[in-house]
Amino acid sequence: MTPDMVTELMRHLLREAIILAAPLLVSAAVLSFVLSLVQTLTSLQDQSLTSVPRLLAVTLILLVGMPWFLERLVTYTRSLMVDFHRFVG
Q1: CA angle, corner 20, sides to 17 and 26, nearest 5?
Q2: Contact present, 10 and 87 (Cβ < 8 Å)
Q3: Which residue of 8, 24, 67, 81 is 20 to 30 Å from 52, comparing CA positions?
Q4: Contact 87, 1 (CB under 8 A)
Q5: Please, which residues have CB within 8 angstroms of residue 24's CB and are 6 or more apart in sequence?
Q6: What does the pLDDT profile of the chain (89 residues) look like in tens digits?
Q7: Is the pTM of this model over 0.90?
């Protein structure tokens, strides 16, 4: 396995990881911003007001997006298995 092949594998792996993590991270960041803005405007400083909705939103996105997440993972794994002969021998 040459360094170019390792670089290609890592590039594809990191690309898939970013694509899979992006919906969760973006939704958590946007929701945190909105909730912080609401807390600032209403002068409420309770930590559970930001943690619980963010946790619920991420859980909901995971449940709704699970078929898409699994499809991406299966497609990536299949592409690795199809090209396995290139990396081994």
Answers
A1: 110
A2: no
A3: 67
A4: yes
A5: 58, 61, 62
A6: 788 888 988 999 999 999 999 999 999 999 999 998 988 888 888 777 788 889 999 999 999 999 999 999 999 999 989 988 887 76
A7: no
